[in-house]
Amino acid sequence: ALVGAASVIAKVERDAHIATLADEYGSIGSGYPGDSTTRAFLASYVDEHRELPPFARESWSTCEDALAAAEQTGLEQF
């Protein structure tokens, strides 16, 4: 029961943190790499800023994909 309670508390804290980030950055989705809203946010952010947002996990393939797509877009502009 203790582990279950800790899991619930962690999810509530995570959801609150995601809500705080959404207040600052707009709709970021669930924050999970498989979420289409999160993927779209990352792609848009990287396209505009040429880097990941400070809260993104660089090790996610989702982030690597967003950076690679922005790099390819940048090369096509020449």
Automatic annotation (TrEMBL):
Where the record annotates domain RNase H type-2, the positions are 1-72
Alphabetized InterPro entries for the sequence: RNase_HII/HIII, RNase_HII/HIII_dom, RNaseH-like_sf, RNaseH_sf
Q: Which UniProt keywords apply?
A: Cytoplasm, Endonuclease, Hydrolase, Metal-binding, Nuclease
Any single GO CC term annotated in Swiss-Prot or TrEMBL for this entry: cytoplasm
**Catalytic activity from the UniProt record:** Endonucleolytic cleavage to 5'-phosphomonoester
Q: Which molecular-function annotation in GO is an example for this chain?
A: RNA-DNA hybrid ribonuclease activity
What EC identifiers does the entry list? 3.1.26.4
Q: What domain of life does the UniProt record list for this protein's source? A: Archaea
Subcellular location field = Cytoplasm
Tagged with keyword Cytoplasm: yes
Q: Name one Pfam family in it.
A: RNase_HII
Its family remark reads: Belongs to the RNase HII family.
| Its job | Endonuclease that specifically degrades the RNA of RNA-DNA hybrids.
Protein name, please?
Answer: Ribonuclease
Source species, please?
A: Natrinema soli
